[in-house]
Amino acid sequence: MKSKPDKLTTNGSALEIAVVVARWNPEITDGLLRGAMQYFEEIFSSIEHIRVFKVPGAFEIPLACKTAAQTGKFKAILGLGCVIRGDTPHFDYVCAETTRGIGSVNLQTQVPTSFGILTVDNIDQAKARSSDDIHNKGREAAQAAVEMVSVLDEIRN
Predict the structure, then answer these.
(1) Which domains are assigned to the chain?
(2) Measured by CB atoms within 10 angstroms of the end CB, which terminus of the chain is less buried, N or C?
(3) How far apart are CA 73 and CA 10, in angstroms?
(4) Which residues are part of the catalytic machinery?
């Protein structure tokens, strides 16, 4: 049986993974974080190289992701948050700018930054996407980040 790696490596250099999580809607974002961490526990022998950073809300996620990417310490970054539609256009602005910001981090820094931001119409949709099962979107964001590290390493080498 093949042993689990300790962490993601590139050219023999081990690097950490950053997880940026919004504190807004903690019932949901804590579930997303649990899903991501469960995935990391499944594929790595240790998760002590996973660094979690909490930010106030979804709007703040791109800045924290970009700052993490610019340190050069992180091989991949996850942005986890939840924006629930309300009665005002606030939802549209936050979703658009958060999406644009995370996309910009990917292109500007070339560090895989996964979009684990739920943009939902109601709390029931958010709960379904952050529950403790294989459909957890935090888990999916973690999986996408790890896969992108592998793809980019293959392209670069």
Answers:
(1) 21-156 (3.40.50.960)
(2) N
(3) 12
(4) 90
Contact 75, 149 (CB under 8 A): yes
Cα–Cα distance measured from residue 139 to residue 137, given in angstroms and rounded to the nearest whole number: 5
- Mean pLDDT for back-to-back runs of 10 residues, the chain (157 residues): 63 76 97 96 88 98 98 97 94 96 97 98 97 95 95 92
Amino acid present at 109: T
Render the chain in DSSP notation, one character per residue. -PPPPSS-EETTEE-EEEEEEESSSHHHHHHHHHHHHHHHHHH-S--TTEEEEEESSGGGHHHHHHHHHHTS-EEEEEEEEEEE--SSTHHHHHHHHHHHHHHHHHHHH-S-EEEEEEEESSHHHHHHHSSSSTT-HHHHHHHHHHHHHHHHHHHH-
Task: Give me 137's structure tokens.
Answer: 């979107």
Q: What is the pLDDT of residue 44?
A: 86
